[in-house]
Write the structure tokens for this entry.
Amino acid sequence: MRFINPKIEFAFKKIFGSNQSKPILISFLNAMIYDGNPTITDLEIIDPYLASRVQYLKDSYLDVKARLAGGETVIIEMQVLNVESFAKRVVYNTAKTYSTQLIRGEGYFKLKPVIALTITDFEMFDNDREVISHFVFKEKKRLFEYPDPGMEMIFIELPKFNKQLDRLETLTDKWVYFMKNAPCLEVVPSTMENVSEIQQAFAIANETNLNPEELKDLEDRERYIMDQQGILRKGIEEGLAQGREEGREEGREEGIALGMREKALEIARQLLNVLDNQTISQTTGLSVEDIQSLRSE
């Protein structure tokens, strides 16, 4: 068997946002938000995925949206590329979802909590090695929680998860492993066979369940993402090689530095529409001010 990549938004929506996905999504959210405890017992998938074809590029920032039995709204996004101002976008979408619950004239008491669950295929928090980060409103020094905060943000950083199959212990471990490794598997691992919802997710993710048009859309999207990720890897390698070559031709150490800087600037220009300033700076060695200057050109 071959399984589609749940990190691609089309596949993510099909697995977690289809009409038949309700038990799968309940298990997944309990694992990611509530440490595997059966806190969520029921939910409604809002605007479930039904279409047989998807657009080539994402036209919505929210992949799946659900309303829990208690009235809370969960917005779930799978993000592969670390695009410009992504962290701000998550905050904006969370606040927008919270604020647009009310129609004109309704009281604030009707507001229900919003939980933003974001799964990333890149590292967001360089100073921390935990896979899951949970943000809530707290007093800055004494760290007590704000009364009725209304919004929470949870991030799952897939690159930080390195457990192997024989080390998977919790429901959370198994779902994160599924998200990160499903397309590399050929069968459902025996360590996951005792979780019926994960078995259902694998069944939906089986490529044999897709029609030719869906497979083509999925392949096109996956190729686009791989191309964007490859810009960085190839560009850095070429930049280093060209910089050293130009430096050798000039016979001076200054020549190496100049050649490498010019190539770094060229790479940075290609990444302006893909990555944020800080990530481009860390990748190319240019300053954040350099990147900002390129954006203003």
Observations:
- The longest strand covers residues 73-79.
